[in-house]
Design brief:
4-stranded antiparallel β-sheet, disordered N terminus, globular
């Protein structure tokens, strides 16, 4: 018995240690934090809008490069920003439209198609900054989605059908943006104007897999008494809207639904886009100038 007792105790100790190790392994974190890197510059971001990672784990966003932006507005942050795609450890520079310096990605669908905006080398005298265009990156190419006669635009969302929504300008004069911004739906090369809720400007923010679109629109020329810029971006009463195609066979066909007045400063809206992404100072003065002119 003198020799068997230590053996029993030893077996019990090893069993306890094995159980403890097993429990510890089960409780250990089962995740990892991955640094996606940059395109050579100091900073990168996964993007200002959602979704920015699809179900395949492909991420899109914007990153500083080592290229100097000749149109830098707020030095010393004067590096070109380029849209990127990260897939299984590889970071790819999506580039810009010909002649452009900056681009940014706003959304990605399940097929890896990416919607966003890009400069094209032209200059907008109203905003005092480069022209930005709504773009789609697919099959290694960048596609300009077009406009309704005006210079600027941006793409905010894309679904798995390849439907893209955002805002582009027409050629009708507008005191806030030079010419009016209109919400659009793009599919298979066709750009469709979704209209507004009665005001001069609107933008589409998101499209779901069923093709329903939500966004924000001015409802009239009624002023909104906003706070001092740059915290308030819209000088007119703004309502949310829902756009959908009418199908008599559907159980429910809801109209576009305004959801109350508000000063909407989400990143996808036209004036906010210029403030946050392309460092344009004119938009910060817009509300104050409008109130002073009344």
């Amino acid at each position: 018995m003198k020799h068997k007792l230590p053996a029993c105790i030893t077996a019990m100790v090893f069993t306890a240690l094995a159980i403890t190790a097993q429990v510890a392994a089960q409780q250990a974190p089962r995740y990892k934090l991955i640094d996606l890197g940059t395109l050579g510059g100091p900073n990168s971001s996964e993007g200002p809008r959602l979704p920015i990672v699809n179900n395949r784990g492909v991420v899109t966003g914007g990153s500083d490069t080592l290229l100097t932006d000749p149109n830098c507005v707020f030095p010393p942050n004067c590096l070109d920003l380029h849209a990127f795609q990260w897939d299984r450890g590889t970071l790819t520079d999506l580039g810009t439209l010909p002649g452009g310096n900056n681009s940014d990605a706003n959304a990605i669908n399940g097929h890896g198609q990416i919607a966003g905006l890009s400069e094209n080398g032209l200059f907008d005298s109203f905003f005092g900054s480069p022209v930005t265009r709504p773009v789609l990156w697919r099959n290694g190419q960048v596609v300009d989605l077009g406009d309704f006669g005006g210079p600027n635009g941006f793409a905010n969302s894309i679904n798995n059908r390849g439907q893209v929504v955002g805002g582009v300008q027409n050629d009708i004069p507008d005191q806030f943006f030079g010419t009016q911004f209109q919400p659009f739906l793009w599919q298979n090369g066709v750009l469709r104007n979704l209209g507004t809720l009665g005001g001069p400007d609107a933008a589409a923010d998101f499209v779901n897999q069923g093709g329903q679109v939500v966004g924000s629109s001015f409802v009239s020329l009624t002023p909104f008494e906003c706070a001092d810029p740059p915290f308030s971006d819209f000088p007119l009463i703004t309502h949310a809207f829902l756009w959908e195609t009418f199908n008599p066979g559907r159980r429910s066909n809801r109209p576009s639904l305004p959801m109350g007045p508000r000063n909407d400063d989400r990143p996808g809206n036209p004036r906010r886009k210029y403030c946050t992404c392309f460092r344009n100072e004119r938009c910060r003065r817009g509300c104050r100038e409008f109130r002073a002119s009344r």
